[in-house]
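This part of the workshop introduces the protein records we will be handling. Getting from the letters to the tokens is the skill we practise here. An example says more than a description, so a record of this kind follows:
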Amino acid sequence: MGTPQPHSTRRPSRYGGILRVATILTLLANAAFARNVILLIGDGMGFNHVAAGRAYAVGSDGALVMEGIERHGQVATHSATSAITDSSAAATALATGVKTYNDAVAVALDGLSLETILEIAKSSGMATGLVSTTRITHATPACFAAHEANRDNEVQIAQDYLRDSRPDVLLGGGGRVFSSALLGEARQAGYEIVSTADGLSVAAASATQTSKTLGLFAYSHLTQEIRRSEASSEPHLWDMVGAALAMLSVPSSDFFLMVEGGRIDDGAHDHDLRRTTLEVAAFDKAVEVVVNWTQAGSARQADTLVLVTADHETGGLSIQNPDETLAAGEFVTADWSTWEHTAADVPIWGFGPGSEAIAAQMDNTDIFPIMLDAISAEAGTVVSSVGKRATTLGAVKRAAATP
């Protein structure tokens, strides 16, 4: 893998070098242990995307499930080399706490691999999972379980999954990426391969502590909600989340799960308000599944850190017509300022052990230490390109938890 060249002198992390390590060690010293960590990412979802989804789902006077989460703030999203991030640089910041160049998949400016929160969780004995409505090898999920110089290296990303990080649950689209040879490799690595919503339900119902599931439900991305037929064999995002929770939470398993509502971004790039709005509503249904799961009565389920955020804003969406009051099922009047991403801050909500670290104004690199703090994993080594050196964060063993 070639060494990428930085395009500016911007620091790759606001916690570069000693300052970053001191911050994380302070967080670890005041750890609020969580049995599980769930990170939900709305790709391209800015504040006005949420407002559009709210108006459609529950009416202007209502609130989405994610908006009812007690702790909240806003997050700056710039990458190391640009005021406007792409999904891979943003996801790398979320997954590793380090800013990098656009297109990078969990590698630093100097090309060195960055240990991700999923890998840290895995090394501490937790189960792990990735769920997305995009190809499962697309930019956002890739940055949690692969290391590549460019997000377009999707075959190599799939190989990274199967040969190195081996998440227990991989659910999304992307059948085109997995050749027959790669599918054979997946089976050899212990994965059950499913391709329909019904198959996923069966796999979830029969999951054991050693099960691994690779769900490939579409040739490329999953079909957007507005284009779904009732006869579709694809699971919805909320179906995949429910199945992932069932598979990852078999007796005695603690877990890390990343969920991406990946098609909000596509609708916004195309300035298609209805597509975008329905994807936000679907993402909120997935959040609702998670919230309900944490409240189902088990102490182990309640002991879960849940974070809901976005990687960036797409389209410069603004809501027009201030005199408009909408009932559920109606769409806002809106306009767009760009076909691309913007530098606008994005929302964050959270609850559970460790969520007290959420602040009114945050950087996307602040989210990784919150997750690391909550799981207090065997931290291993996180590579920072500041000074091009590896820094050991220490070994804080997970506290024994009562089932």
Q: What stands out?
A: The first helix runs from residue 17 to 29. The CA atoms of residues 65 and 288 lie 6 Å apart. Confidence is low (pLDDT under 50) at residues 1-25, 377-403. The domain at 17-392 is CATH 3.40.720.10 (Alkaline Phosphatase, subunit A).
